[in-house]
Amino acid sequence: MEKIPVVQDIPAPEGKLHVRLTEGRFQNVRRLTSWPLLALFFSLVWIESNGEPWLLFSFEQHRILLFGNAISWRDLSLLAGLLIAAAALLFFVAVAWGRVWCGFACPQSIWTWMFIRIENITEGSAHTRARQARQPITSGLASRRLVKHLLWLALALATSVTFVGYFVPIRQIINASAQFQLSADIAAWIGIIALLTYLNAGLVREKICLHACPYARFQSVMFDADTQTISYDQSRGEPRVSRRKGDGSAGDCVDCGICQQVCPTGIDIRNGLQAACIDCGACIDGCDQVMKKLGRPPGLIRFTSESRLQGQPGRVLRPRLTGYALVMVSAFAGVIFGFTDTTELLIEIRRDRTALFRQMDRNTVCNHYQIKVEGYQKQSESVLVTLAEPAEFTLFGPPAIDLSENSANWLPYRICATIPQPVKRTLVFRFINGDSEARKETTFLTHRF
C-alpha cells in the first residue's frame, strides 16, 4: 500500500529550544480550537445539576456522573467503546489531514504553547532568551526566571486541582484545602499531576513529541500519498539562495530559517515529512509572512498532499479512509445504542458465609443473605423487595430500600421455610421501582443438603 516516506534519521536539535512566537491564520485556528477546550476543562468541573457535578468519575460512589445521569461501574465498557470510537476518529483524521490533532488539540501541545507564552512574557522573545542563555546570569535575569517558574507552577497546580476535581468533587477539594484538612492521598495526586504538568510543558516539551509520543512512530503507516499534511514545495523553493545573493535561477526559499525558529519541536520541514512534525502550522504562518514581505505568493510551505506536490490530482475517497470512516461510524453508533440501555438498578446478593442454613426450630429452616442495591436513575428513590413465591417462603428484612441513604450498603435479609423442602431450591427476589421491576435469583438450602 502506498504511503508517504517519513524521515526518521534527522538528528534532534541539541540544547533548549527557544521557540519564536508568530502570528497567522493557522495560529488563529489553533487558538479557536484550544481556547474552548481549555474553557471546558477548567469550567466543566464546577458546573452542577441538582447539587451533583455534571461530570464526575466517583470511585467512592462507584459511579460515573455524566451531565446529570449516573452510570454504573458495570457500564464501563461503554467508556471503552467510546475510546475505541475516538481512536477510529483520530485515525480517520490522520489519514485525511495528518497530525492536526497534535498541532491544534493535543493537551501536550496546548499546555506547551501556554508555557512558552509565559516564558516569552517574563524573559523576552526567543532571540533575547537565546542570547541570555549564553551570558552569565544576572540578578535581573534570575528574578525574571523565578517569576516564570512560579507562574508555571501556578498553572500546573491549577491544572492538577482541576484534573483531580473530575474524580473528587472540586468544591470538596477547595474547602478541605482552605481548612488544611485535605487527605494525604488527594494531596499526593495533586502534587504528582502538578509536577508532571510542570515537567512536560515547561522543561521536557518537544521531547515528548520526539521520543515519548507513540503516534509519531506509526504515522508513516497511516499516511498515504493523498494525506493533506504540512509540506515544503521543493520544486518552487529550490535552490535555496539568500535574498542578497539571489539571481534569476534561485528558488523562492531565501533560507531565512524562520520555519525552524517557530517550530515547537525544532525541526526543519524543508528536509521532508518527519516523525516529530505535529502539523501545528507555525512554519506556514512564518514562511507566508516572509513571502509577503518579499512580494512573492504564499504557500511555499502549506497543507497539501504528496500527489498534489507531484502535479497529480488528489483522491478524496480511498479504501483506507473509507475503512476508518466505517469503523468510526460503527463504533459511535454502538456507543450511542449502549447509552440507551445502561444499568438502572445494580443488585448484588450474597449468602451468609458463616452457615449454609440455620435451624430456627423443629419445623423451620432459614437462610440468611446480604443484599446491596444501587440506583442509577433520578427517579430511583426507593426499591420494594419481595419474593416471587411468598406462599412457600417468608422473607424477613426491610420491605423497601431507600437508595439515597442505603445505596452501596449491604442490608441483612432472612428467608425461612417449613420442613420438608427440597434440598436445594431456586428463589427469585423481586425489586420493584415504580413501573419497572428487576429480578435476581438465589438459592435456598435445607438441612437435608
Description:
43% of the residues lie in helices and 19% in strands. The protein has helices spanning 25-44, 76-97, 100-104, 107-123, 126-133, 139-164, 170-178, 184-204, 206-212, 214-217, 219-222, 234-237, 258-261, 282-294, 306-309, 319-339, 403-406; strands at 48-49, 52-53, 55-58, 63-66, 69-72, 229-232, 301-304, 345-351, 358-359, 364-375, 382-387, 394-396, 400-402, 411-418, 424-433, 436-445. Strands 8, 9, 10, 12 and 14 form a five-stranded antiparallel sheet that branches. A four-stranded antiparallel sheet has the order 13-11-15-16. A hairpin with a 2-residue loop joins strand 4 (63-66) and strand 5. The N and C termini lie far apart (67 Å). The chain crosses the membrane at residues 35-56, 76-97, 150-168, 180-199, 321-340. Keywords: 4Fe-4S, Electron transport, Iron, Iron-sulfur, Membrane, Metal-binding, Transmembrane, Transmembrane helix, Transport.
